[in-house]
Amino acid sequence: MDSRSLTERPGLPTLLGVRYDASSSFVRGAADGPLAIREAISAPSSNPWTEAGADLGSRSVLDDAGDLTPAPGEAGRASITARVSELLAAGRLPVVLGGDHSISYPVLRAMRARYPRLTLLHFDAHADLYDRFDGDPYSHACPMARIMEEGLADRLIQVGIRTLSPDQREQAERFGVDLREMRHWRGPEPIRLDDPVYLSLDLDVLDPAFVTGIAHPEPGGLSVAELVAQLRGLEARVVGVDLVELNPRLDPSGRSGLVAVKLLKSLVDLLRRSNHSTEAS
Fold first, then answer.
1. pLDDT digits over 147-201, tens only?
2. What is the dihedral of CA 31, 37, 43, 47, to 10 degrees?
3. Measuring CA to CA, how many Å separate 265 from each of 51, 82, 108, 187, 231?
4. What predicted TM-score, i.e. pTM, was given to this entire model?
5. How far from 28 is each of 31, 68, 127, 277, CA to CA, in Å?
């Protein structure tokens, strides 16, 4: 973990890498995601500028709090919560790079302590609502169940879902989830939300034609352009985000990392716009 103290910088998006994949099923490798994303930001094949004209290479646009490498278990989850809480205490907007999707649960513990009202907007091929997966209640297939049963979000909206099993559909009904399934997708549509929003983005919401560095590819997903347009059209105050499940071991070309950075750019633009950031690039 980066040991630099955090100065007060209200409204500044700040990276935090969480190098954790011990709760992954099928294959490991998502713990290398933060490193791959940082490398892709400075890849010579592209540049760090967002569509809105912000330079990700500038610390006045995107600061970096370094990486956390949690141990499995409650102590590791507590370390994630504590580090995100430090970012929030300094007025920062957390931009959490996974890691597998299980990290969203301890992140939301910190977010909820800061925001009495909070909507969770979740982009994913999978609902991640299993009560247990392979006997593990903290699997990356379970974070949304843990978040909702602990009351860490007032509302859960899920976009891009296309793998609902009967037990997950039952869980969705139990928690009152607002499901925007791919079978009903007709293109990007405006989403307007009043409460502060935490946005969780699993890369496998994309069709695997656009990103191969994911462990659980599910055909029939969004294109990069569709997802970027959907993020661009979001009308809400977004107070934190995560970008999870990049597995660079499954894509030696590094192109999936470039896709992740494209989405990171959109997320930073969204954070800056929705929080009325006026800091210079």
1. 999 999 999 999 999 999 999 999 999 999 999 999 999 999 999 999 999 999 9
2. 180
3. 8, 26, 22, 21, 11
4. 0.95
5. 8, 17, 20, 37
